[in-house]
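Researcher: Checking consistency across runs. Here is DUF1656 domain-containing protein again:
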Amino acid sequence: MGELNIYGVYVPMLLVQSVLAYGVLRLVILGIDPLIEKGWIPLPSVFYLCLYVILLWLIHWGFIVCFV
């Protein structure tokens, strides 16, 4: 995808996308925590990892569609 030049420091776009996906994940976790407390999601850490990968893929796809 490329990189972003911030005052002479090159930052990979995938790093920006992963930080954005992590922020979205933290917001989604607030809504999913009640489901975990009720026991509807048995392995929350694996669920969160899969959810993060899906969010990262969606954000990456959105960047490709909007900026390329």
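Researcher: Does this match what you'd expect to see?
Model: One thing to look at in this run: The chain has a mean pLDDT of 92.
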